[in-house]
């Protein structure tokens, strides 16, 4: 099955694509894919593959460039269709020249938001931030200073449904590919999450042991933890149980106070979320049931 991609025509002499695919595992997949690409005039720049023995499923990521002249994304899709059908592939081709259009969502804690905006501005993350949605006004000045639209939508039990309707409309009108919950502290409904499989990334703290609630760092300090961390994952209808993309950890020393833990924890959250988004924008993540295959 082919998943369609948004096309933006760019005039250039050479085409670069990333092909992601998965299918039932059987002999001949790599040979057939490589031969098809060769026959169509493509040069393979990078290739990764993985066979899941338990799931009996094969995963592959191939970065290619046209060896001679420009090839459109539509042409690539059409030419690869027969091979994909022969192996019952789920697949998608990405044009490397097109940056993903991203919507960021945040509440009061803006450390992840500010980090992502900075990384986007300097080109460390190849993405176009189209807007920022928040249920608080705190981040407005920072966002609008960057020339990015800021949408202030307060959330209450009475407005939650209407807000998700507005969010759906914004995603559609702005052709948003990826939604990032950069410490957005409101729970999205399972119905909303189901509309965007593998397109919503969340970051949350993850402790060993785990501490939940409003003041997790204070509880972790009380228990004298020696390590804290963060997890970035795709959002599903099951709260904080979507497929994990990246995880980060940091050591804690006995002489640290609660403020120190918060500072360390926020740094881990920033790094972990940025790495997850980088992997997404580089098209290195393939979902495998409730898990992910990450080609690095």
Question: How is the topology of this model organized?
Answer:
Layout: E1 16-24, H1 29-39, E2 42-52, E3 57-66, H2 73-86, E4 90-95, E5 101-106, H3 111-122, E6 128-134, H4 140-145, E7 150-152, H5 160-173, E8 178-181, H6 190-194, E9 200-207, H7 216-223, E10 227-234, E11 244-251, H8 258-281, E12 285-288, E13 291-294
Parallel strand pairs: 5-6, 5-8, 6-7, 8-9
Antiparallel strand pairs: 1-3, 1-4, 2-3, 9-10, 10-11, 12-13
Features:
2 domains, 13 strands, Alpha-Beta Plaits, alpha/beta, 296 residues, Rossmann fold, disordered N terminus
Q: Can you walk me through this structure?
A:
The chain is built from 8 helices and 13 strands. It is an alpha/beta fold and about 300 residues long. The strands form 3 sheets. Strands 7-6-5-8-9-10-11 form a 7-stranded mixed β-sheet. A 4-stranded antiparallel β-sheet has the order 2-3-1-4, with helices on one face. A hairpin with a 2-residue loop joins β12 and β13 (about 290-295).
The amount of beta strand, in percent, is 25-35%
The strands making up the biggest β-sheet line up spatially as 7-6-5-8-9-10-11
* Mean pLDDT over the full residue set: 91
**Distance between the terminal alpha carbons, to the nearest Å?**
25 Å
The largest sheet, given as strand count, sense and whether it forms a barrel, is: 7 strands, mixed
The low-pLDDT segments are 1-11
Cα-atom radius of gyration: 21 Å
Number of domains: 2
Overall shape: it is globular
Helix content: 25-40%
CATH superfamily of the largest domain: Formyl transferase, N-terminal domain
Q: Provide the CATH top-level class of the largest domain.
A: Alpha Beta
Counting DSSP E segments of at least 2 residues, the number of strands comes to 13
């Amino acid at each position: 099955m082919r998943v369609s991609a948004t096309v933006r025509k760019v005039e250039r002499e050479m085409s670069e694509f990333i092909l992601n695919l998965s299918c039932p595992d059987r002999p001949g997949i790599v040979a057939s894919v490589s031969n098809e690409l060769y026959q169509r005039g493509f040069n393979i720049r990078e290739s990764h593959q993985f066979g899941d023995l338990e799931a009996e499923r094969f995963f592959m990521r191939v970065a290619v460039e046209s060896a001679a002249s420009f090839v459109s994304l539509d042409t690539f899709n059409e030419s690869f269709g027969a091979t994909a059908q022969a192996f019952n592939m789920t697949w998608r081709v990405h044009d490397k020249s097109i940056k993903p259009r991203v919507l960021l969502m945040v509440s009061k804690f803006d450390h992840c938001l500010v980090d992502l905006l900075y990384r986007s501005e300097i080109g460390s993350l190849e993405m176009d931030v189209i807007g920022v949605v928040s249920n608080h006004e705190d981040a407005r000045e920072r966002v609008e200073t960057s020339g990015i639209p800021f949408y202030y939508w307060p959330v209450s039990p009475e407005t939650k449904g209407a807000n998700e309707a507005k969010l759906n409309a914004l995603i559609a009108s702005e052709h948003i590919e990826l939604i990032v919950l950069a410490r957005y502290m409101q729970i999205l409904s399972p119905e909303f999450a189901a509309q965007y499989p593998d397109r919503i990334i969340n970051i949350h703290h993850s402790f060993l042991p785990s501490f939940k609630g409003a003041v997790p760092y204070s509880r972790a300090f009380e228990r004298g933890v020696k390590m804290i961390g963060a997890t970035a994952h795709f959002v599903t209808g099951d709260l904080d149980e979507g497929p994990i993309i990246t995880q980060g950890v940091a050591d804690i020393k006995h002489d640290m106070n609660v403020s120190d833990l918060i500072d360390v924890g926020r740094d881990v959250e920033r790094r972990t979320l940025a790495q997850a988004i980088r992997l997404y924008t580089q098209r290195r993540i393939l979902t495998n049931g409730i898990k992910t295959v990450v080609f690095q």
